[in-house]
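Memo to structure team: turn this sequence into structure tokens by end of day. - J.P.
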Amino acid sequence: MKLRLKTKKHSLKVVSLITGLILWFYVLNAARITVEKTITLQYVLPDHAVFAIKPPQEAIVTLEGPRAFMRSLLERDEKIVVDISRPPWRDSLRPQPVLKSSDLVLPFGVKVEKISPRILPLRLERKASKLLPVKLVLTGDLPQDLQIQNMQIRPTEVEVVGPRSLIQGMKEITTKPIEIESLYGQTNLSLEWNLPDERLVVSKGGNPQITYGLKAKRANMVLEKVPVRLLGEGVLPRQQTVAIVLWAPPDVVRRVDKSDLNVQVWAEVPEGSKKAVEVELRAVLPPRLHLVEIRPKRILVEPR
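Reply from structure team:
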């Protein structure tokens, strides 16, 4: 009997403890608190207009509600879509949309006490477009031993869209400056537009591209005994190695060990060749190296 009473008392204590913890957790999370949250503003503009001045990008919202709901709400990325492409603001260049609590989707029991700013005094401007020539901007100097050949930029002109006040004064559109050294070892390059204002956009065509060739006017390095590789089966080159005459930047020329430059020479053998034939050699070079000459330019290959 005594053992049963002791067991019952212990059970009541456990139940009381659990009940207390549940009540404590409920009271703690049911307590109402007030917090501030930064909300991103996203704008929808009429097709004919752009911003004349940069609009507010964020609003501060003061929220009040149960602690349990606030925690998850603060962790979420919230935004308010400000649509001025519809009445009553569609035709106005000075719209003043009002931010409302109904613009936010909030959990049950959470309410908006304040939004700052509540009224958005926006300034719009009529949109315009213009066809402008493209100008390439290069910085730095090309080494005297190199020259650029046949450089072309595409597109040569593009349509730019933006505020009328900016578009009217534009004579050309430029690329972002590119260092001449970045041209080494390539024959084409993708660039970026250098737009003087973030409200300007290039309507079509994507990023500008340039194609070009770099030619060495004289050599400053010779690699001897470069192995000839064959594109073809069942043939042997009569000459196993050749010399490569190159132009290279000074830091490469000064290197004592040039074995890791990965210079390759290939001979493409005509398919089905049954006799000795003379083929032209082709060099594959790493960036920053430029071919002047292969010695010899052609070699004989013969069936095995």
